[in-house]
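Q: What structure does this chain adopt?
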Amino acid sequence: MELPRNSVWRVSNSGLFEDGLYRLLDIIQGVESVILFSLEETSTTVRPIAVTLESFIELVSSRKAIKTHYELPTYLLVDEDKIPDEHIGRRDKNYDLIKGIVFDRAFIFDFATKKRSTQLAEYARKTGIDRKSLARLLTLYWRNGQDKMALLPAFSKSGGSGRDRTPTTKPLGAPKQPRTIAVDRAAKFIVSVDDKKKFKKALKKYYLKESGLTLVKTYNNLLKDSYSKEIILAEACGRPPFVPTKKQFSYWCAKLFSKEQIIKQRTSENDYLRNKRGALGSISDRSHLPGVHFEIDATVADVHIVSELVSQYVLGRPTIYIVVDRASRMIVGVHVSLYHASWRAARQALTNSFLPKSIFCKSFGIEIEDSEWPCAHIPKELVCDNGEMIGLQPEKVLAPMTQLSFTPPYRPDCKGVVEKRFDIINKEAIHELLGTTRGGQIVRGNRDSRKDAVYTLKEVTAEIIKAVLEHNRSIFDDLAFTSSLLIENDLSPTPLNYWQIHLAKHRHELQSANSDDVIARLLPSAEVSMTRSGIYFNGMYYSCSEVETLNLASVARSSGRWRLEARIDENTTNYIYVRLDKNGRFIRCDLLPRSRMLRDKSMFESSFVQDWLDSKKELRPISTASIGDHKHRKDVTRQAKCRSQNAESLSFKDKTRNTRLRRKEELEATTNIITPESAASITNDASDSFPSGDKVIPLPKGRKRKTNGGGI
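A:
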């Protein structure tokens, strides 16, 4: 059994001496005794006690004496270099006074067992020091650990630090000092207990509440509520009022209420948790493996865009969706659209995060390998806010794939990783573009950012993709302290390296995604039509090899069009996914040349064309000329009806008799056709003036009519 010197023991139910905390000063083998010093007595002179070694061992064996710890005063826990020379001199001087007897075991046993110690008196007489002073030094030495530092003077407690002092007739603190001798300052106010109660009441009423008043306004209300009589009387007497000053009120505000109380009571619980609480941990502490948590969120981009077809049309600011892996800080998916934050746009971002990225980047003119953005996986849990992801549709679509987790309302710090990515993307890419709003930091009178808008949705998306790729290659110091794999494999702490090394070492929670399943579940659904010219959707025509093999366009031309189920990727018009058979899979169909004007555009541009066409139709439903034609037609019809009233007496048979003869007469009356009778009269009249001859003039012949061989 170990009984080390200077150890501390908690003694209870011993029956030999009082229970309490004791320091074991020494073990004297000659008399088989243990010298103990009580640490709970607060007197400046405390004598040690002596017990037999056998009895103390028995106390330890019976668990009546348990080894414990004693906390030294804080002023002793200091570096030697930080102690002033004056304090070191006092400490060394006091130590020199007692070092002649403190190591004398005979003196210690005598001092612990006898009421009067002759050895202490003789040593005090020899050194010329008062006996009680020596006893005080010995008490400090034994209480604080039996070393030289135990005698360090406790000047840190000088002045009653931390204790309230009760003022009498003399004010506490420095008096008011005028800057010049020409002006006398008012007497200093003495704050009493009643004044503190008034301070506390005013602070609770005006200051310590959500959206409370400032401390200055609270002080003014304090004077109006509690010291109004004194102020009125002083003004009548022409003297300064004897009231607390602003400085005194501010001092007692900090004394009566702690800083934590002031912060909590002057803000809401939600704002305190979000912006003012201590951030001792991080949201990523619980997920250090890729795929444990994906975070998704949306924000409005800080830039205005224009239409790709008509550049003078400003379309506003697009919405950016980002999906990020919490552990690796890897941006695994992105989507930029003109839709506001909604399930329709969120499902596009999730589709992008679950599918390979090379095809997606190629549609925006960026050529990459899949290894440069190797994210095509489904996470264990998807963290989102209380917005578009709450509902039956997201739950029905995503529940078979992953687990949904929702953050509390107004708590963006619960998905702080994706929130920080928005800040990085804005600063690195968007704020450098023309038409940017720079996060709302617009000075009044500056040029409207919409006037500078020149970029299209596709161009902005391409810049964001480049910023995402650069982000995934950037070094983040936090990643170096998250996993040891980066250091073991000598890799830079980038999201891309973190992602790849954890996948290579099989330390992740990712699951691979089936592209057909993702397309069928997540991409927005639409109805398309199979027509004679191809698959029709939103003014565009598509086709694929299966359509040509089955000759479906010919069937539609003969039998009429029919509807098909489709999935639309709103990032591009170059292709859609169509289910040709209700029991089949979705097949990619590419844009046909007849719709080439919208090639390499987003689906929003085709919607813009449809809206533009509708606006033109609304602007001019019919032409103004057709209105005049319609009125003229009605007048002609009315006149014709008036003419036909006289013919109502004739029967239908009489009306239709001799139609050819009447048609011939009508031609002769209304045209210059020469008949045989008119030709003979013209010949007789001209015979006197023109000589006759035998010359024959051939006339043009009409074509011969073909008749059927067996009939008329």
